[in-house]
Design goal:
The protein is 59% helix and 0% strand. The protein is an all-alpha fold and 126 residues long. It has one domain (13-125). Helix 1 packs across helix 2 (33-43).
Length: 126
């Protein structure tokens, strides 16, 4: 079974939460993707959780002879990237929450970069 966009980093925030939920629901039948988001933000960061998710996936699905744990997500991140922080960023640059849930982290980052460039250019013109 292939999950489109998984290896390319193209999953949306909602898809990350759903994928992580799917891996954990056997531990807690009352768990929901929304609860997963809350748990990530309360106890960890999206970077750490996705890194652990990749580690578990690589260990589970590594073909004999392949290097284990090749995929590293978010190395060098200085501040925890939580979903709450990502939502605040989206709102601050004018992205509606409904659009946020359909975005990948890379798209959010690009949107923030473009927003800052426009803001800087506008300031330089005045």
């Amino acid at each position: 079974m292939a999950i489109e966009g998984l290896q390319e980093g193209l999953l949306t925030m909602e898809e990350y939460a759903t994928l992580i939920w799917a891996g954990l629901v056997h531990e807690d039948k009352d768990l929901t993707p929304d609860k997963v988001i809350d748990l990530i933000d309360e106890h960890s960061s999206l970077v750490d959780v996705t890194r652990d998710m990749w580690k578990a996936l690589n260990e589970t699905f590594t073909v004999e002879g392949e290097e284990k744990g090749k995929k590293q997500v978010g190395d060098g991140e200085s501040e925890p990237f939580t979903i709450k922080r990502a939502k605040k960023l989206a709102i601050s640059i004018g992205i509606p929450i409904s659009e946020f849930w359909e975005m990948t982290p890379a798209e959010l980052n690009l949107s923030a970069e473009i927003y800052m460039e426009k803001k800087k250019n506008k300031k330089n013109r005045t």
